[in-house]
Protein backbone atom coordinates (compact mmCIF):
# COMPACT_ATOMS: atom_id res chain seq x y z
CA UNK A 1 0.00 0.00 0.00
CA UNK A 2 2.85 2.36 -0.81
CA UNK A 3 0.79 4.43 -3.23
CA UNK A 4 -2.36 5.06 -1.19
CA UNK A 5 -1.93 7.93 1.28
CA UNK A 6 -5.30 8.08 3.04
CA UNK A 7 -9.04 7.94 2.53
CA UNK A 8 -10.86 11.21 1.90
CA UNK A 9 -13.95 11.99 4.00
CA UNK A 10 -15.69 15.09 2.69
CA UNK A 11 -19.38 15.67 2.08
CA UNK A 12 -19.34 14.28 -1.46
CA UNK A 13 -17.31 11.20 -0.53
CA UNK A 14 -19.57 10.50 2.45
CA UNK A 15 -22.56 10.61 0.07
CA UNK A 16 -20.78 8.15 -2.24
CA UNK A 17 -20.19 5.68 0.62
CA UNK A 18 -23.85 4.71 0.37
CA UNK A 19 -23.23 3.65 -3.23
CA UNK A 20 -20.16 1.54 -2.32
CA UNK A 21 -17.86 4.17 -3.85
CA UNK A 22 -14.75 5.23 -1.94
CA UNK A 23 -12.29 8.10 -2.40
CA UNK A 24 -8.54 7.92 -1.71
CA UNK A 25 -5.61 10.30 -2.11
CA UNK A 26 -2.72 8.47 -3.73
CA UNK A 27 0.86 9.28 -4.72
CA UNK A 28 1.39 10.83 -8.15
CA UNK A 29 2.85 8.60 -10.81
CA UNK A 30 0.80 5.48 -10.11
CA UNK A 31 -1.64 4.23 -12.71
CA UNK A 32 -5.29 3.31 -12.27
CA UNK A 33 -4.51 -0.39 -12.70
CA UNK A 34 -1.85 -0.31 -9.98
CA UNK A 35 -4.21 1.37 -7.52
CA UNK A 36 -6.98 -1.04 -8.48
CA UNK A 37 -4.68 -4.01 -7.85
CA UNK A 38 -3.56 -2.66 -4.45
CA UNK A 39 -7.12 -2.02 -3.27
CA UNK A 40 -8.26 -5.48 -4.39
CA UNK A 41 -5.28 -7.13 -2.73
CA UNK A 42 -5.37 -5.16 0.54
CA UNK A 43 -9.12 -4.95 1.18
CA UNK A 44 -10.15 -8.21 -0.51
CA UNK A 45 -12.86 -6.65 -2.69
CA UNK A 46 -13.55 -6.45 -6.42
CA UNK A 47 -13.04 -2.95 -7.88
CA UNK A 48 -15.39 -2.30 -10.79
CA UNK A 49 -14.19 1.10 -12.02
CA UNK A 50 -11.54 3.67 -11.03
CA UNK A 51 -11.83 7.39 -11.83
CA UNK A 52 -8.92 9.72 -11.14
CA UNK A 53 -8.14 13.43 -11.04
CA UNK A 54 -4.72 15.08 -10.70
CA UNK A 55 -4.90 18.04 -8.36
CA UNK A 56 -2.34 20.81 -9.01
CA UNK A 57 0.04 22.03 -6.34
CA UNK A 58 -0.80 25.28 -4.61
CA UNK A 59 1.41 28.35 -4.94
CA UNK A 60 3.28 29.43 -1.81
CA UNK A 61 5.25 32.55 -1.03
CA UNK A 62 7.66 33.20 1.82
CA UNK A 63 8.85 36.79 1.53
CA UNK A 64 10.39 37.34 -1.90
CA UNK A 65 10.71 33.61 -2.60
CA UNK A 66 7.99 31.99 -4.71
CA UNK A 67 7.34 28.27 -4.62
CA UNK A 68 4.65 25.65 -4.73
CA UNK A 69 3.53 22.54 -2.90
CA UNK A 70 3.67 19.08 -4.43
CA UNK A 71 0.75 17.88 -6.49
CA UNK A 72 -1.04 14.62 -5.76
CA UNK A 73 -3.59 12.42 -7.42
CA UNK A 74 -7.08 11.87 -6.07
CA UNK A 75 -8.71 8.60 -7.05
CA UNK A 76 -12.41 9.31 -7.22
CA UNK A 77 -15.26 6.87 -7.00
CA UNK A 78 -13.66 3.49 -6.64
CA UNK A 79 -16.80 1.46 -7.24
CA UNK A 80 -16.33 -1.63 -5.12
CA UNK A 81 -18.46 -4.73 -5.42
CA UNK A 82 -18.55 -6.47 -2.06
CA UNK A 83 -19.34 -10.15 -1.88
CA UNK A 84 -21.25 -11.63 1.02
CA UNK A 85 -19.12 -14.42 2.41
CA UNK A 86 -21.03 -17.36 3.81
CA UNK A 87 -24.39 -15.56 3.87
CA UNK A 88 -25.85 -16.98 0.65
TrEMBL record:
Its main location: plastid. Keywords: Chloroplast, Plastid, Ribonucleoprotein, Ribosomal protein, RNA-binding, rRNA-binding. GO terms for molecular function: rRNA binding; structural constituent of ribosome. Part of the 50S ribosomal subunit. GO terms for cellular component: chloroplast; cytosolic large ribosomal subunit. Binds to 23S rRNA. This is 50S ribosomal protein L23, chloroplastic. SUPFAM superfamilies: Ribosomal proteins S24e, L23 and L15e (SSF54189). PANTHER family: 60S RIBOSOMAL PROTEIN L23A. Belongs to the universal ribosomal protein uL23 family. The keyword Ribonucleoprotein applies. InterPro entries: Nucleotide-bd_a/b_plait_sf, Ribosomal_uL23-like, Ribosomal_uL23/eL15/eS24_sf. It holds the Pfam family Ribosomal_L23. The keyword Aminoacyl-tRNA synthetase does not apply. It comes from Sorghum bicolor (Sorghum). HAMAP family: Ribosomal_uL23_B (MF_01369_B). One of its GO terms (biological process) is translation. It is found in: Plastid, Chloroplast. It comes from the Eukaryota.
